[in-house]
Amino acid sequence: MSGMLIDTTPVDKPTHKIGHLDPDTEYEISVLLTRPLEGGTGSPGPPLRAKTKCADPMHGPRRLEVIDSQSKQVTVRWEPFGYNVTRCHSYNLTVQYRYRPAGAASRKPVKEEVREEVVYDTLSAVPQHIVRNLPPFTNVSLRLVLSNPEGRKESEELLVLTDEDVPGAVPVDSILGSSYEQQISLSWREPLQTYGLIRQYEISYKALSSFDTEFDLSNQSGKVFKPANETSHVFTGLYPGSTYSFTIRASTIKGFGPPVITQFTTKISAPLMPAYDQESPLNQTDSTVTVLLKPAQSRGAPVSKYQVVVEEERPRRQRRGTAEILRCYPVPIHFQNATLLNSQYYFSAELPMSELRAPMPFCVGDNRTYSGYWNAPLLPHKSYGIYYQAVSTANGETKIDCVRVATKGAATRKPEPEQEKQSDHTVKIAGSIAGVLLFIIIFLGVILLMKKRRRNYHSYTYYLKLAKKRKETLSSRQEMTLMVNSSQHTTTVDTHTHTLNGRTVSSPSSFTLKTNTISTSVPNSYYPDPFVPTAILDDSHTMTSETSSLVQSHYKQRESEREALPYQTGQLHPAIRVADLLQHITQMKCAEGYGFKEEYESFFEGQSAPWDSAKKDENRMKNRYGNIIAYDHSRVRLQPQDGEGGSDYINANYIDGYHRPNHYVATQGPMQETVYDFWRMIWQENTAAIVMVTNLVEVGRVKCCKYWPDDTEIYGDMKVTLIETQLLSEYVIRTFAVEKRGVAEIREIRQFHFTGWPDHGVPLHATGLLGFIRRVKAKTPPTAGPTAVHCSAGAGRTGCFIVIDIMLDMAEREGVVDIYNCVRELRARRVNMVQTEEQYVFIHDAILEACLCGDTAIPANQLRSVYYEMNRLDPQTNSSQIKEEFRTLNMVTPTLRVEDCSIALLPRNHEKNRCMDVLPPDRCLPFLITIDGESSNYINAALMDSYKQPSAFIVTQHPLPNTVKDFWRLVLDYHCTSIVMLNDVDPAQLCPQYWPENGLHRLGSLQVEFVSADLEEDVISRIFRIYNTARPQDGYRMVQQFQFLGWPMYRDTPVSKRSFLKLVHQVDKWQEEYDGGEGRTVVHCLNGGGRSGVFCSISIVCEMLRQQRCVDVFHAVKTLRNNKPNMVDLLEQYKFCYEVALEYLNSA
């Protein structure tokens, strides 16, 4: 740069300041002397060279933008600049960027990475720079910094998300497995480096080896896919005693990451004993019994030995009704020790497997010794049962199965051979005559019963009049009470029983049903739902039953009452009175000639009407399954789209409701290709409720595509926006705003998504589904169009929902149900509605439960008056509605059978149970995961649902001295954040203090550290820090224990309703604050029963009040009792739940 600047400013001193110079520029300065007037100008003096300093940059780089983003690098571009911006010829341009590496999975704070690079491309017309070595799928903050010796200026910050990449490996130490005999439950965590949104997991498995060499493992392999939100899977159909290899890898949109491999071994099964049809010995004397011993079939491990057990049958043993699991004998007792130990059985022989390769006779009582066991002669005057059991041992496990092979009766005197033959002949003749007479009696009884039922069918008109007259004077709760009373008072059961959980349990072998006309012995194994009482209503109480309620007020019509013709019932399958429903179901489950199996098989299977439209080429791809498609005569016809052939087709059929034509649309779960058609149908039919009875993925298979948005989505000319999501333990309610292009209307549509249907079979209990159906009814406007119901195919579960809904309406209006003809009518509209016999039986059980229990929900604004009325004593019966409701609850509470609690009853777990009659069922056990030298993963605890969250509560007993470590393992393994203690520390009752008051408490690899304590009214709250030294990468977990002091041991209920309610609020508040409501709550009292049930019930009821503004104590307790029958086991506790609900309303 060159130029000249002349400053003619006169100066009168030897210094002068020159301004307006350019930064970072060298100047040559000369001084000229000038005299005024005519003196002239002299020559310049010697030149002076000087350079100005740099100035602060004018501004930072502008128009910074990303022109390319990849998974590990980002290219940025900016507006070129020159000296007028830098104001210095020597400057630096750098890019600063920062990001937070992936590490959220560990829940530890991750330090932010800050880096800086020099930019060399500064002079080109299109300057750009590539930032490399970035982590994939990470938010990166970038800015350019222009600096010179005098200052710096920054560009605006630019945020950019790097592209996705394949994920890292699933952490090996996060893979946890629980092994069972024929299944392995696997869980894992997402990769620490997800590098994107995890789309799915692929889990491959393959059998490697088995303890049982007879197993063919070639077909034991497979592959399942799980969506990103599911990090667990239960592999079923596995072989016992077999080692499986599992390979897990995660995928993003870029593909699968590296695999990780682990191995687990299934538990061995007990050997399968051979069948002994009759307990008849080969030979018998006064002191010996000769039996035929047959080899058992191994299952997962070879049979190691066989044992012969002799059990003395004393008179009190005649009522024995225990299941086969208790007829096995894991503890060997010698004959010499049997009397000393007061044992009724002893081992008479133990035979190695090598001696029993083929059937062989064995003489019990031959006075010889087998493997150290004396086979003592039998005493003639005693009766014995001879048992034969096989033992398998492998991998530290021992499994036993046994069978009764003979019975020896007591001998009064030794008969002569001729007399013996004659007696035997007499017995045969008497038995034949008795058999013929029994057949005649049964045949006559059946004829009388059929006549009686036909007579009852013709008397429905009388029954309806009587019921109507009765309803004018009875409340809905009284009606329910009358029905339950009539069905209970008319029940007579004669059965061999044993007790579990304080309740009588029917023997699985046989029992007798008695009425005034017929007596039949039937097997109990035909009862899939244990709550159905095993009894038949007595004829003498028919009139009492007629006055009973049908179902409760919630099933009343959702539109104005209208007179209509009675529901048309069939000739061969007449409708069944609600009062007779219990008797009918009991008979159908027990029938040997014609029962549910035969009735279901009488339905027409497969296509029964034309479906030409569905078969057209343009429509074939719109059907999820080729055999479940829409009939032409009842299909929903969509408004055709211009120029699109087949655009009027959707796999959906109209179904009539109860006196409501086309009240339902039964359809398949939408596929990706049919989502737009589905929403077209919803709009066209003016549907306000969508009922979804499937999950998106079940058993690794896609059952339905996700046809709704998480925010807003456009489907063709339809716009669907998610407004609200309400999560409950067994279902989800989603509310959408739906708009159609060109239509000035916004419709509110609700989706009711039932998530509690298991992958296989039907729900164990109908309680949840019935509550779901009531919610759908209550939330659906009466003026809306058809309710859309779908599962995957739109036939099985869809049919169940529709039939139950129709039949409950019918029961309310007519006092009868006609399930058979309802299913038949549905199948005339859509193929194969109600797809299995199991679903058909479940429908009957669900309707029976609804009729027995009724609708027990009470609006919050009516609770005070209704509860007052419920407690009012009837002077005639000396009872009240609340007592009858609790009695009903006891009646419909499922009874736990011995086989339901097989794990708790294992010999190695006996010492871990405080009471052998308060045991958790296998299906809701929380198996311990943390390993610390423990061979058993059992703890006496049960998982329970809260109002909003499945398995939110873990109900358990106060830890025994030998289960304190198990208790803390439970807290750590199941991410528990709260412990509620409802009993006192009492060493006399083996209730130790299981926590440290200060300092550290070491339990093997577990450390429990006391943090703080606080006392507020009746609650001591303590905070602990739990840490597993064997897994330091898991970090620690904070747990707060709430010890409630306001419930003395001598009281049935707490002293103060207010303080107990405060306890519930304190727990809720801690749960929300610490873990966002995701952590579980451990609730314990002495035995994990009544008191724990009160806390869980009140917690559910309070949440119900917040969400629905209604109270349903009956439903809350029934839901808990489905898993643990002793929850809320006293009437006073049941009343207390209502009273705390009133306290909640007062405090609110």
TrEMBL record:
CDD domains: FN3. The chain crosses the membrane at residues 429-450. One of its GO terms (molecular function) is protein tyrosine phosphatase activity. Residues 770-841, 1058-1135 form the Tyrosine specific protein phosphatases domain. Residues 596-850, 882-1144 form the Tyrosine-protein phosphatase domain. It is an enzyme of class 3 (hydrolase). It is a single-pass type I membrane protein. Pfam families: fn3, Fn3_PTPRU, Y_phosphatase. Keywords: Glycoprotein, Hydrolase, Membrane, Protein phosphatase, Signal, Transmembrane, Transmembrane helix. GO terms for cellular component: membrane. Residues 60-165, 170-271 form the Fibronectin type-III domain. It catalyses: O-phospho-L-tyrosyl-[protein] + H2O = L-tyrosyl-[protein] + phosphate. It is found in: Membrane. Its EC number is 3.1.3.48. This is protein-tyrosine-phosphatase. It comes from Parambassis ranga (Indian glassy fish).
